[in-house]
Design goal:
The structure is a single chain. With 703 residues, the chain is mostly helical. The protein has three domains: 8-42 and 265-461, no CATH class; 79-225, no CATH class; 476-692, Hypothetical protein af1432 (Orthogonal Bundle). Helices cover 63% and strands 4% of the residues. The strands form four sheets. The protein has a two-stranded antiparallel ribbon with strand order 1-8. The protein is elongated, with a radius of gyration of 46 Å.
Length: 703
């Protein structure tokens, strides 16, 4: 059995039906709807890249957009400031270094020219000069100036470019002078050492090669310094011409215009807030008036109103989340979804948990609200959501298993196909890639709807104490712990409950009541007899009658107490409140007449000596049609067993007597049964009892 996660106080609150609480729930719905209407996105026509525009599009407001084409041109112009950059060929630097080392080893001339130097000093000076030559870069003055604007170190750059066509060149004296000063700043070498080593390198003809990677890196760095260019567009400017091919520039302009309109809406302006509140108030008021006129039982039930509002709020949250994903996602596939199907989510929940009539109103209400509030094509979104929702209402009739929800949603998805194709035909196109995307998105939305509904229905059932046909079927499972124990401990009563379920379901259907609920509830209406099974005739397997050991008053109390025991067992196993109501009401406040009559006989027929209240069930009287039907069928089923000749007239007399007796006792005063209902119930009872008491052919014994 299901566990009840909600306290009794929550159940009592839902059952209070106080007008104040109902108004509070309405206020919550009003506020949530106002917020949804107020914080809405701006809707624009969806343009497809490389598609042909079907009409003119004009700027609605002044706005600026990031002009990628202009920015690209400016960056290309800036990159042209970086000229060619040369470096000395590494091979020649190493060759000159080897030549210097050979000179130091085999010639003694350097010791004469630099008497204060040592071989190690000469060697280290050569290392320093070699490093500087490798790092040296030669370019034009403009390039060096741009490098300085980037705040990059420029000590290794020199203003010098080789003549065109030259393969070998001498480096300018200014270059060698700077190299000499750079080495001299370290104070590690004597002056004659620096002069001698530099002279050996300076006499060389150098081959300069272009440093392409460095040029590319510098140009990239220069391009990044150019800010993004924003182009201003004035209101009334034509953005797209009719028949023009849609480019990425058009898409960027449309997005920028949308952002400008959103920022200009002034959401927190008092007048804007009042406008949203007023629209929300209009919708909520119209809805309340509709339910008050067409469904007064709904508007008086706090449980149903709270459930309805809860489903509406959840649907609005899902719709807002879906809109956010579709608008903010960088995926091109998600961005091409044009018609999200959202209303069927609430429709199927309300149809299963409340009623198809309420679901139809919710489908219409939500389709209108969502179409005017979401950033979608209003008319097409409205048509698609309304059609799929109505198909769901049609297909939800008689759904009894949770897996059938997927079948209902699948049928709804197929109903979207002709609608989507009609949209494509209205655009004078037989087939487009967008149509394929819309079909796939429709199936995905409705499959997700089926998954969400399947998961949420048990939560709503538990939270609001609602019994759906799917739950009733689960409660009828004979393998449940309670029913197995019931069948094992009181088999006669269990069989009586099965027969009674068939009678009650037939009668309920004859007057339009919930037959499945009657069948399920009757399985549990006598579970209190499990505590004292031997005191009930249908469970007595021996000739000993336990009531012979008790006084009539004691016997009556034992019989009556099975109702109280049944309520305790039902609460222990967390049975629904409606089942507990059936346990309490299926005898109402009727009199246990058999033991009352026996007590009267013992008292000499003096009614003053017998307290009639001791022989009446505690009640209450039946408060629903289903409860009254079960009361009638319970008495009729037991009485029909004593009919020796079950003809139509005999059974009709029994049924008529029992119904009249219950009515005169006031047992139907609190329920909604009328004379027409009682007439149909009598006919259904007689017909069903005749079929169950039919006479079989007597077969001859085999010789």
């Amino acid at each position: 059995m299901k566990r009840d996660l909600f306290p009794d106080g929550w159940r009592a609150w839902l059952g209070s039906n106080s007008r104040g609480w109902r108004i509070l729930v309405g206020v919550v719905c009003f506020i949530c709807l106002a917020l949804f209407l107020h914080f809405r996105e701006v809707r624009f026509e969806v343009l497809e890249l490389n598609a042909t525009a079907g009409r003119y599009i004009v700027a609605q407001v002044d706005f600026e957009f990031p002009d990628d084409e202009t920015t690209l041109i400016l960056r290309q112009q800036a990159m042209q400031d970086i000229g060619k950059v040369y470096q000395i060929d590494d091979k020649e630097i190493r060759s000159s270094r080897y030549h210097l080392e050979d000179l130091l080893i085999h010639s003694k001339q350097w010791r004469v020219l630099a008497p204060s130097s040592t071989f190690e000093e000469m060697y280290k000076a050569a290392d320093e000069i070699e490093t500087l030559l490798i790092e040296a870069r030669f370019t034009d003055p403009r390039t060096i100036q741009r490098i300085r604007t980037l705040a990059l170190p420029d000590f290794a750059y020199f203003e010098f470019l080789p003549d065109d066509g030259e393969t070998q060149t001498s480096l300018p004296p200014e270059f060698w002078s700077k190299i000499s000063h750079a080495i001299a700043r370290s104070d590690l070498f004597h002056r004659e050492t620096i002069d001698f080593v530099l002279k050996q390198f300076q006499e060389t003809q150098w081959r300069l090669v272009e440093d392409v990677p460095l040029e590319h890196a510098l140009r990239t760095a220069i391009a990044k310094t150019v800010p993004e260019k924003f182009t201003k567009v004035l209101a009334g400017t034509r953005l797209v011409d009719q028949g023009e091919k849609i480019s990425s520039r058009h898409l960027v302009m449309m997005q920028a215009m949308k952002q400008a309109i959103s920022e200009g809406r002034r959401l927190y302006d008092p007048l804007s807030v009042v406008a949203s509140l007023l629209i929300s108030l209009i919708f909520v008021t119209i809805s309340a008036l509709y339910f008050r006129i067409s469904q007064p039982d709904f508007i008086r039930s706090l449980r149903q109103i709270a459930l309805f509002v809860c489903i509406i709020i959840v649907t609005l949250l899902i719709a807002k989340f879906t809109e956010y994903v579709l608008l903010k996602s960088s995926s091109t596939v998600i961005g091409e979804v044009r018609y999200p199907i959202l209303a069927p989510f609430a429709t199927i929940l309300i149809c299963i948990l409340l009623s198809p009539r309420t679901a139809l109103f919710a489908a219409t209400f939500l389709s209108i609200i969502l179409s005017v509030s979401l950033a979608v094509d209003h008319s097409r979104f409205l048509i698609l959501n309304l059609v799929t929702s109505i198909v769901i209402i049609i297909c939800c009739q008689g759904i009894r298993r949770r897996k059938e929800i997927f079948g209902v949603c699948l049928k709804s998805a197929f109903s979207a196909l002709p609608v989507l194709y009609s949209f494509s035909l209205s655009e004078h196109r037989l087939w487009t890639n967008s149509l394929l995307t819309d079909v796939g998105a429709s199936f995905i939305f409705l499959i997700v709807t089926a998954v969400l509904v399947t998961g949420l229905i048990p939560a709503f059932e538990t939270m609001f104490g609602i019994l759906t046909d799917m739950s009733l079927v689960e409660y009828m499972d004979p393998n449940s712990d309670l029913l197995r124990e019931f069948a094992a401990s009181v088999p006669g009563t269990y069989q009586h409950s099965l027969v009674l379920g068939n009678l009650a379901e037939t009668c309920a259907r004859s007057i339009g009541a919930n037959g499945l609920f009657c069948r399920a509830a009757t399985l549990y209406h006598d579970i209190g007899k499990m505590n004292n099974p031997q005191f009930y005739t249908e469970n007595q397997q021996s000739l000993v009658n336990m009531h012979q050991l008790l006084t009539p008053t004691e016997s009556a109390q034992v019989i009556i107490y099975h109702v109280i025991d049944g309520v305790e067992i039902a609460k222990k196993y967390r049975l629904p409140d409606s089942f507990i109501d059936i346990i309490k009401e299926h005898h109402g406040t009727t009199l246990v007449y058999y033991f009352y009559r026996k007590e009267l006989e013992l008292k000499g027929g003096n009614k003053d000596l017998v307290q009639e209240s001791d022989f009446r069930y505690p009640g209450p009287k039946p408060r629903t049609k289903e409860s009254a039907i079960i009361m009638i069928c319970d008495s009729v089923e037991a009485a029909s067993r004593s009919v020796e000749s079950p003809t139509e007239a005999a059974l009709l007399e029994v049924v008529q007597h029992i119904i009249t007796e219950k009515a005169e006792d006031g047992q139907f005063d609190d329920c909604e049964l009328n004379f027409e209902d009682l007439k149909l119930i009598k006919q259904a009872l007689v017909k069903t009892l005749l079929l169950s008491h039919h006479i079989r052919v007597k077969y001859p014994k085999r010789k």
